[in-house]
Design goal:
There is one protein chain. With 119 residues, the chain is an alpha/beta fold. It has a single domain (21-118), classed as Rhodanese-like domain (Oxidized Rhodanese, domain 1, 3-Layer(aba) Sandwich). It has four helices and five strands; from the N terminus they run αββαββαβα. The protein has a five-stranded parallel beta sheet. Pfam families: Rhodanese (PF00581).
Length: 119
């Protein structure tokens, strides 16, 4: 009986506490219709953005010193879709925005490189 109880405790701890919830979506699955109550943010540099970007994307450079400040006017309950070149900067931006209290931030995995590769 004790062994079964210990097994159940370990199972609950392993499945419940160790999983980290991060919202992500392959960038190829993103559709413009998702922007009805959301915003799309390209976190690459202005130079990268100027060389090509997704339609309706706003450019907020991850490397800007005031990156967080640029989101002050955004509703924290609004969905924010983020992308960058390959997914690294957008993952960091996602963590930052979640730490600031944004409740629905989605990292578009694969980044703009994946978009270019599929075209």
């Amino acid at each position: 009986m004790r062994t079964i109880f210990l097994f159940l405790v370990v199972l609950v701890l392993q499945t419940g506490c160790s999983q980290e919830k991060k919202d992500k979506m392959p960038i190829g699955d993103f559709k413009q219709e998702l922007l009805d109550n959301a915003i799309l943010v390209d976190v690459r540099t202005p130079e990268e953005f100027g060389a090509g970007h997704l339609e309706n994307a706003d450019n907020i450079n991850w490397y800007d010193a005031d990156f967080s400040e640029q989101f002050k006017t955004v509703d924290k309950n609004k969905t924010i879709y983020l992308y960058c070149k390959m997914g690294g900067r957008s993952a960091k931006a996602q963590e930052k925005l979640e730490s600031l209290g944004f409740t629905h931030v989605i990292n578009l995995e694969g980044g703009y490189d994946a978009v270019k590769a599929n075209n």
